[in-house]
Amino acid sequence: MSTKTDILRPIVLLVATVWISNSGILHAANSAATTRPNVLFIAMDDLNDWIGVMGGHPQAITPNLDRLASSGVLFTNAHCAAPACNPSRTAIFTGRSPHRTGVYSNAQRMRDVLPDAELIPKVFSRHGYHSSGSGKMLHYFIDADSWDEYYPSAETENPFPRTLLPESRPVSLPRGGPWQYVETDWGALDATDEEAGGDYLVAKWVSEQLAKPQEKPFFLACGIYRPHEPWFVPKKYFEPFPLEKIQLPPGYKPDDLDDIPEAGQNLARNRYFKHITELDQWKHGLQGYLASIHYADAMLGNVLDALDRSPHANNTIVVLWSDHGWHLGEKEHWQKYTGWRACTRIPLMIRVPEGTTGLPQGTTPAKCDQPVSLLSLAPTLLDLCGLPAETIHDGPSLLPLLKDTNAQWPHIAMTYLHSRGSYSVSARGLRLVHYADGEEELYDTDNDPYEWNNLAIDPQFERRRDELRKLAPTKFAESPRPSVESLNELMWHSLTGNESAPASKPDGGQFDVVFINGSEQKVQLWWMTAGGTPKPYEMIEPGEQRRRKSRPGAVWMIGNEAGKNLGYFRVDDRSAKAIVPEM
User: Fold this and answer.
1) What string of H, E and C letters represents the secondary structure of 456-474?
2) Do residues 56 and 48 touch, judged by C-beta distance below 8 A?
3) pLDDT grade, residue 29 (50/70/90)?
4) For residue 42, what are the β-bridge partners?
5) Using omega within 30 degrees of 0 as the cis cutoff, is the peptide bond preceding 552 cis?
6) 33: exposed, middle or buried (C-beta count within 10 Å: 0-12, 13-18, 19+)?
7) Tell me, what's the pLDDT at 25?
8) Contact 307, 222 (CB under 8 A)
9) Which of 48, 356, 513, 517 is 20 to 30 Å from the Cα of 66, by its Cα?
10) Which entry of 99, 139, 284, 327 is annotated as an active-site residue?
C-alpha cells in the first residue's frame, strides 16, 4: 500500500525536474543575452570617397578609416537613401525609405512627419540592450525618448558639446548674399584638440563608455560632425596640406554639364562654386575639407584605440557610414543635394568579430562592389545580433554579402532627391539619374567613374536604361510641409520715429515665410521693394498667422493701424517664421 510520501515523491521529483529544466532554459537565455554582440555605430557627416582606401582624392590622410576598412568589409558601391542629412539619417534610423515616409528634405522635421516611428536605438533597448550615443546622429536633435543615455544630456535635444569657433566670421569666404549658408567658411584654429572640443569631446565620451564593464550588451552611437561645414579644425590638421600643393578634385572636368538635361544643370549650378572660384578660394576650400577629414579620422582613431583596449574588443560589431557625399566643384557644384555619384556614394564599413550571433565566423577583410543602400543598416544589425526582423524595414539585410562578398545580390540602391519623383538608381557598373520632369542621365561607372559621359540617349544603352527605370518605384509619398514650430525664427528689427525699413535685395529662389502676430494689436504687413517703397499686403489680427512666398534678402515691414512703422524682418537663406513681438 502506498504511503502519502510515496504518492508525493513523483510530484516533488516532477516539480524539481521542471524547476531545474526551466532554470537551465533561463540560464541559457541569460547566457545568450549576455553574449550577444555589442554594436559601435559610427557616423561621419558629409564625407565623400576622399579616403585613402577609396582613392577619392590622392592627398587625403585617413589612416584610421583605412585600418578599419582593411579589418572588415568595405562596401565600395554604397549609396545614401537621400543626399541630405535629415532624410538620409531618418531613413537609416527608421529603416524606412523616403519614398514611403515623405521625408525628402532638410526643411522637414522627422517627428512632425513620423511621430510614432521607432528608431534603431529604441529597438535595441526593447531587446535588452543599453542604447547610448553622442554627437550628431539625427538632424540637429537627439530624440531623447529613443536613448537610454546621451552626451550632451538628451533632455537638451542639442547633440553638440562645446565647440570652438572663431569669434569673428566669416574668416575665409565672404557671404555672396543672403542665399549663402553662413557656415560655408573655413580656417585653421590655433588650439589643441581638447581646446577645440566638438568631435574631440564626442570621441572622448564614447571612449569612456567603451572602457567600462557593461551589464548588458550595448548599442553605442558615435556622431563625428566633421567634415561637415564649417571647416574649422586645429591647425596641425591643415599643415600636411600646403596651399600651393593642393590638387583639384579628380572628378572635376570643365564643361561637364554640356550633355546634361536642364533639370540637372539647374541642380548643379547653385552659385556656391562660381562664388568660391571668383574669389580664388577653391584651393582654400579643398584644403579646409581635407583638413577636416584628417581631423575626423584622428577622432575615429581615438575611438578605435579605446575599443582595442577595452574588455569589449572581441565582441563588438563596428559599423561606419557617412550620411551622403559632397561636391567640391564636380559638375560645377558645391555642397550636396544631387543625384550624382559624388554625392550619393559614401564610405560604408562593417567589421564583425567571430562568435557573433548572426555571423559566427565573423567577417573576412574584403571589398564588395555590389550596390547597397544605407537603408540596409537597421535590418543588417538585427540579423547580426540575432534579433527578430522588423517588417516595416524597407532595405534588404547585408548579411549574405558579409558572409560572402560574391554572393548573389539581386538588389539596386535608390537615392531620392528633395524634388518628389526625382531619384538615382545605382546598380553594379551602371547608374541612372531620373528627374521628376522625365529627363534622365545614364552612366557606365565601370568605364566612367566620374560620370562625365551621359549615355541616356545612346541607343546602345536604351535597354539597360529602361531596365533600371523599371526597378524604381512609381509611387512616391507626398512631402508634408514643414510645421511652423520647426521653422527658424527671423530676427525682429525695431523702428522708431518716422523710420522706414530698408529696401529689399532679393537674391535666390522662393520659399515660404510664416508671419505670426504675437502682439495684442492688429498689424499691417508691407513688402519693401528693391527701390525702398513699401507695398501693402494684408492686415494680421492678434494671434493670427499668414504664409507668404519670399526670397533671400527680402525685407518685410510691420506697421500698426495708426500708420506707425513698428519694425521689420529680413529674410535669410531658408524658409522661416517671423514673429511680431509684444509691444
Assistant:
1) CCCHHHHHHHHHHHHHCCC
2) yes
3) very low
4) 222, 320
5) no
6) middle
7) 36
8) no
9) 356
10) 139
CA distance 413 to 39: 24
Neighbouring CB atoms inside 10 A of 471's CB total 12
Contact assessment for residue 574 and residue 511, using Cβ atoms and an 8 Å cutoff: yes
Residue 293, CA distances (Å) to 58, 65, 304, 402 in order = 13, 10, 16, 27
SS3 of the chain: helix, strand, coil, percent, to 5? 30, 20, 50
How open is the CA angle 298-302-306, to the nearest 5 degrees?
A: 160
Tens digits of residue pLDDT in 522-546: 999 999 999 999 999 999 999 999 9
**DSSP secondary structure, 67-85, as one string:** HHHHTSEEETTEE-SSSSH
87-110 residue pLDDT tens: 999 999 999 999 999 999 999 999
Q: What is the model's pTM?
A: 0.89
**pLDDT value, residue 4:** 36
Handedness of CA 47, 51, 53, 58 (dihedral sign): positive
Is residue 139 flagged as an active site residue?
yes
Residue the block writes with cell 512616391: 476
Q: In what order do the strands lie in the sheet with 413-416?
A: 413-416, 423-426, 430-434, 440-444
- Told to judge if 99 belongs to the known catalytic residues of this protein, a careful annotator would answer no
Q: Cell 543625384 maps to which residue?
A: 339
Q: Given this model, what pLDDT does residue 35 score?
A: 74
pLDDT for the residue numbered 245: 98
Q: 371-407: string of b/e by CB count within 10 Å (b at 16+)?
A: bbbbbbbbbbbbbbbbbeeeeebbbbbbbebbeebee
Of 85, 222, 368, 385, which residue is the catalytic one?
85
What percent of the chain shows pLDDT beyond 70?
94
